[in-house]
Amino acid sequence: MRPVKEEVQNPAFAYIAGRIDKMLVPALLYFLAHKPAHGYELIQKVNGSGFSEIEADPATIYRNLRRMEEDGLVISQWETEHTGPARRAYQLSPEGYRALDYCVQLITDKVARMQAFLEQYQREVKGSE
Amino acid sequence: MSNQLTLKILHAGALRKPVVECAKLLQEARPELDIQLESHGSRACARQVREGKVVDILALADPMLFEELLGPEYVDRYFIFANDQIVLAYHEFSRGSGEITAQNWFDILLKDEVTFGRSNENLDPCGYRTLMVWQLAEQYYGRPGLFGQLDQRCRGDLIYPKSYDLASDVLVGKLNYAFVYLCVANQFGLRYLTLPEKINLSNPTYEDYYSQATVSLQGKNSGEMITISGAPIEFAIAIPKNAENPAVAKDFLDLMLSHRGRQLLEDCGLIPY
């Protein structure tokens, strides 16, 4: 993995770090890394995945997508190539992929700390009973 | 001025404020335009277009109407641009409003002295969505017969042409409660009770659950009936194929879908896409 911490410049990264526990932004970035999607579909995927700590309502998801767009993490455009219904589709920008890498780094660090806690508990509390 | 360019907008009553605000913005940029606004329940709007009414912009409270009543003859592309939910709107003097909660609202509404309204399902999507909310509530709260009880109490004059009119009558105290969109409650500054997500038709996560509710409506042709299923509430906008001024209509559409337009929609209580 790239040395993400040295690359942190976009203020969005600080926003992500402050809310990493909720896991909403990592989940959105993750699903968009698979393929572009519209908000309706993302709401279903995020809430169906169990990745996010919260069951996100549409207002929360769309506000986050708008913020991610303003921060340059996603790009949106209306799907107008066919007749019938058109929806705004979101896709990850290169900055969005970097943000996803950053999330993975934060989660990895967090998991390592929690794992260390569990091991120490097993060894020093449960093991000494 | 005889050669003044006109933009005719026909829209769902629920979209009154955001459409007016976007029209004002366009008017500032294009002072020469004559912008004409007209609103009804969305099914009524769609029927008027089918019956020959010519408009440049058509903004409706249910994308399904474009498929069911207008496509592909009158509209071949429409933009689904916002989401909303059904709430129970009231004012501070509505009977029982001091004790109403998401767990007891139906008991309050069924009290003899309480009045509540809904819109007409054949004219306004808010009407059939309200009937769906009642059906889902019967199941969600485990109250067999609840739909029938609410339906029995909300008849005649308590059924309005569009949700905007309902909110207006709650505001002046003519009605105690009304089932309207959140954006309509916000536009009128009404108090409202948020209903559980599993019944308020707001969240795509519950798409399958919502689809259990069905309502029969007058179809496209006289005497024909159709059955529609519950779905998350969305709003859509289009330039009809017979628009007289499609270029100006596109300017308005682009504005509604722009960053500024999304902000306006959010300020009006909608969730813009």
From TrEMBL, chain A:
<dbReference type="InterPro" id="IPR052509">
    <property type="entry name" value="Metal_resp_DNA-bind_regulator"/>
</dbReference>
<dbReference type="InterPro" id="IPR036388">
    <property type="entry name" value="WH-like_DNA-bd_sf"/>
</dbReference>
<dbReference type="Pfam" id="PF03551">
    <property type="entry name" value="PadR"/>
</dbReference>
<protein>
    <submittedName>
        <fullName>Poly-beta-hydroxybutyrate-responsive repressor</fullName>
    </submittedName>
</protein>
<feature type="domain" description="Transcription regulator PadR N-terminal">
    <location>
        <begin position="28"/>
        <end position="100"/>
    </location>
</feature>
<dbReference type="InterPro" id="IPR036390">
    <property type="entry name" value="WH_DNA-bd_sf"/>
</dbReference>
<dbReference type="InterPro" id="IPR005149">
    <property type="entry name" value="Tscrpt_reg_PadR_N"/>
</dbReference>
TrEMBL record, chain B:
<dbReference type="InterPro" id="IPR050682">
    <property type="entry name" value="ModA/WtpA"/>
</dbReference>
<dbReference type="GO" id="GO:0030973">
    <property type="term" value="F:molybdate ion binding"/>
</dbReference>
<comment type="similarity">
    <text>Belongs to the bacterial solute-binding protein 1 family. WtpA subfamily.</text>
</comment>
<dbReference type="GO" id="GO:0015689">
    <property type="term" value="P:molybdate ion transport"/>
</dbReference>
<dbReference type="Pfam" id="PF13531">
    <property type="entry name" value="SBP_bac_11"/>
</dbReference>
<protein>
    <submittedName>
        <fullName>Molybdate/tungstate transport system substrate-binding protein</fullName>
    </submittedName>
</protein>
